[in-house]
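User:
I would dearly like some help making sense of a protein record. Take your time, and here it is.
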Amino acid sequence: MSKLRRICVYCGSSSGNDPMHRSAAHALGAFLSENGIGVVYGGGNVGLMGALADGALSTKGEVIGVIPQALMEKELGHGGVTELHVVSSMHERKQMMVDLSDGFIALPGGFGTLDELFETLTWLQLSFHNKPVGLLNLGGFYDGLIDFIAHMSLQGFLKPEHAACVLVESDPASLLATMTDFRPPDLGKWIEKLAAETR
């Protein structure tokens, strides 16, 4: 079993319409901290991002934020985190978040959350990293996305073993256990075939 020292959490800068999501983000931050796991996130002090950071900080956990300068200038950066890295672009932000983390969890969010989630999954698919990627499917928020991932696989655009890399649970403890036990698929021949097709 792999040791998850830090987990990157992707989540909305909005709180959404259901108060459950903000409470769950705060609870996830506290849960990770209580289990000795540092939190890496987008550095904001608003929405689910702020709730996540506050939850981890409430139990004296390590919280590392990574925020682009353009958002920092709008005073969205969290002033109380352990470390706040101010970077020049979204691309630099995503790379640093991946580099600092041993696994990834997506909470509810919008386009930005999905962008981060799918880039991380693509990098896993291409073996640029071998870290677990999980969806915390609160109240069925991601049910439609989970169905669509299955649809992509059935249509032949996503190998079943790659679709299975999306780890889904509805509570933090179960998701952490699933992520800890994760083993990346052996991509071997698939990578060789992909390379041959792109020559």
